[in-house]
Amino acid sequence: MHCPFCNDPSNRVVDSRLSREGQEIRRRRECDECGRRFTTRERVDVLVPKIIKRDERREEFDRAKLEHSIQKACVKRPISENAIQRLVDRVERRLGEGGEAEVESDLIGDLMLEELIALDPLAAARFASVFRDFTSAADYDAFFATLVADDDSGS
Q1: pTM above 0.90, yes or no
Q2: Strand order through the sheet with 58-59
């Protein structure tokens, strides 16, 4: 591990802690050369399938893309970064547990939408507007109507 400030490879671990429900180790390190501290995170890589895009292209799973899209949907909403990370963890875990070599991108969008609805319905509406390509207010009405109907049937 190279220091992000001076790029020297010599550093030592000052503190280690489990985080994210025991799925990740957070290590606080100190560079032996410049003395500055930085944090690294270690986590087990979950084997996730390749993604089949709508235009039939295949691409590698990219956790950062999921995080970015969720963060955009959650702008100015009372949702912590930890909550977003846990949501992405759950989606990634569910994909890995499926055991498939490839999955459609729509499945990932549906999983993310399901998790977002439970977390924050307004952020879910923002995400759905892009994912499902809303073009009018009627699309939003239909989305919220399904939320109300699901809420009524679940009560």
Answers
A1: no
A2: 58-59, 50-52, 102-104
